[in-house]
Write a structure and sequence with these properties.
With 106 residues, the chain is an all-alpha fold. The protein has one domain. Helix content is 58%, strand content 0%. Helix 1 crosses helix 2. The termini are far apart.
């Protein structure tokens, strides 16, 4: 694995971590039932104060274009997406359906 690939992995890991922490803090603020103050990691001000608010304001099309440009998508690593759109319900592949019907008719 190249140094660039390692750097991209670290960038993605940091981004996902801080977006997840921000989401948990929002939930905590909406449903206050805890008895302790939330823990904040030291030295992570850029991620909490700059990255998370900017990420939330940028439209998805811009984020998607940036990920493709940086080759940080699953498709750039050889993964092929499923043949359906995200809102479509799951259906078995055509080949699996024909094999199952031929077995049941025996």
């Amino acid at each position: 694995m190249s140094r660039l690939d390692i750097a991209k992995q670290r960038l993605r890991a940091h981004a996902e971590h801080h977006l997840r922490v921000a989401a948990m803090e929002e939930l905590r603020a909406r449903h206050p039932a805890g008895t302790t103050a939330p823990y904040h990691e030291r030295g992570e001000l850029f991620w909490r104060r700059v990255f998370v608010p900017m990420y939330r304001r940028v439209p998805w099309s811009v984020k998607e274009r940036a990920m493709r440009t940086l080759r940080m998508t699953a498709a750039s690593s050889g993964w092929t997406p499923p043949p359906r759109r995200p809102a479509e319900p799951w259906r078995p592949p055509a080949q699996a359906g024909t094999e199952a019907s031929s077995r049941s008719s025996r």
